[in-house]
Amino acid sequence: VWTVGEMLSLSIVSALVAERAGERSQGRYMGVFSLSFSVAFVLAPLGGTWVYQRFSAEALWYGCGVIGVLLWIGFMSLSTTVAAKGAERFAAKD
User: Fold this and answer.
1) Calpha distance 69→12 (Å, rounded)
2) Residue 28: which residues within 8 A CB-CB, separation 6 or more?
3) How far apart are CA 47 and CA 32, in angstroms?
4) What average pLDDT does the chain have?
5) What is the pLDDT of residue 23?
6) Would you call 26 exposed, middle or buried from its count of C-beta atoms within 10 A (0-12, 13-18, 19+)?
7) Which ranges of the chain would DSSP assign to H, the alpha helix?
8) Per-residue pLDDT tens for 21-37?
9) What is the pTM of this model?
10) Do 16 and 82 contact (CB within 8 A), yes or no?
């Protein structure tokens, strides 16, 4: 599940980060983007095992479900924003 999600979203998100950065700041933005993934790969297992030990397996998976829904909502709102900006840019080129 994780691999498919990464395959579907990582390239799109990377392109979005590079596009939003502008030409002068792309390196810095992509560096911070890569750093955030590295930090997440270290902290997520620690946080997940802490929740599992402190509360329960059910709490961990329900929490993952809630976070997944929140991320879905965030991606949906981001996609409408990006689509609107793309339409503005496309109209400006004509």
Assistant:
1) 19
2) 21
3) 21
4) 85
5) 83
6) middle
7) 2-21, 26-54, 57-93
8) 888 888 999 999 989 98
9) 0.66
10) yes
